[in-house]
Specification:
- With 345 residues, the protein is α/β, with parallel strands linked by helices.
- It has 9 helices and 15 strands.
- The two termini are 16 Å apart.
Length: 345
């Protein structure tokens, strides 16, 4: 049985390889054996694995899976054979989600509704979890708030927009290309304003303040920030931290994905004057405490229900076959592609 794994070269370069692996012959008390039907490819956070002492010679790739239960452990109560499930393999998993069969604890899975495809389930589960973490857990989203989603046409950005609309939040979004801007302008329910940051003539702060009558937005979700003047081509559409602080309203919440964010004293002073807050978005934190396991499962269950009702309509490119997984994963890791899903027939 073959799986996809990440290997660091001596020069520090990330390489992805297909290699043979085997399923343990014994199944744990609370483990479930799942035949994988769909697996999403998202960037591997090498630094996070190092920080958590999970660095290994080969890091399993493909953690967002959907499939059919083949066998359950003696103490499993949530599932039985032939159930259709979706879930996320933990960071310390030893098997790649692209293997034909994986073992996973029942506490990391939820039932998949029949009308939700393998493709949609695997492609949406982690991005939707991030959206819930950002908007509900960190930002305390409420009806009447105004939300700014940076890079709204990304798979994560789109689900954050849809979740916000569902809860009566006014949404602004940025587009990093003309194609993305046209896509966002056609969304229904509609985005209140699409800000084309690909156009150098457009000012993000002015656009947000104009749309909110000078009051600023209540919640900002970024995709990273520009920390210095000299940044790489990859970060050219990202805002500076001062811009985000400037467009925040009183009592606003800034949810950032920038793990190296450094706030200077003037930045902190501006946040203090607005009684605003900064939260760091790391959806992996749900696995850090067993006290949160019930809420984690509740979120995933709500995600698949919203997929079944059409509230969530994920944006994922066409599925790719297994033999293209290595090339696709390399492009995803380099941010040349946003996300890919491998579907097994």
């Amino acid at each position: 049985m073959k799986g996809l794994y990440c290997k660091l070269s001596e020069a520090g370069e990330v390489k992805f390889i297909i290699q043979e692996t085997s399923v343990p012959t014994t199944i744990g008390n609370h483990q479930v054996k799942v035949q994988v039907k769909g697996c999403a490819l998202s960037p591997v956070d090498i630094k996070l694995c190092e920080d958590l002492k999970l660095q290994r010679e080969h890091i399993p790739v493909g953690r967002e899976i959907a499939g059919v239960v083949l066998q359950v452990g003696p103490k499993v109560t949530f599932f039985q054979p032939d159930d259709e499930v979706v879930g996320i393999l933990p960071l310390d998993a030893e098997m790649s989600g692209l293997c034909d069969v994986v073992l996973i604890d029942e506490y990391n899975l939820v039932q998949k509704p029949e009308k939700v495809s393998w493709f949609e389930a695997a492609g949406a589960i982690k991005d939707a979890l991030r959206a819930y973490t950002a908007l509900h857990t960190l930002a305390r989203m409420a009806v009447g708030h105004t939300l700014l989603v940076l890079d709204g046409a990304s798979p994560f950005g789109l689900l954050a927009i849809q979740l916000a609309h569902y809860h009566g939040v006014k949404v602004l979004a940025t587009a990093v290309s003309l194609e993305d801007q046209k896509f966002l302008e056609q969304l229904r329910p509609s985005v209140a304003r699409v800000i084309g940051v690909w156009d150098s003539k457009v000012d993000l702060v002015d656009s947000c303040l104009e749309e909110t009558g000078g009051l600023g937005v209540d919640i900002v979700i970024d995709t990273g920030v520009r920390l210095y003047e000299e940044e790489s081509e990859v970060k050219k559409h990202l805002p500076y931290k001062h811009d985000i602080i400037s467009l925040l309203g009183v009592g606003g919440h800034w949810v950032t994905t920038e793990d190296n964010l450094q706030l200077d004293p003037p930045d902190s002073r501006n946040l203090f004057l607005k009684a605003a807050s900064v939260s760091f978005l790391n959806e992996e934190v749900w696995e850090a405490s067993r006290a949160r396991q019930g809420r984690y499962l509740h979120i995933m269950k709500d995600v698949v229900e919203k997929l079944a009702t059409g509230t969530f309509r994920p944006l994922v490119e066409n599925p790719v076959p297994l033999y293209e997984a290595t090339v696709s994963m390399e492009m995803v890791q380099r941010r040349q592609l946003r996300k890919r899903v491998v579907v097994k027939l």
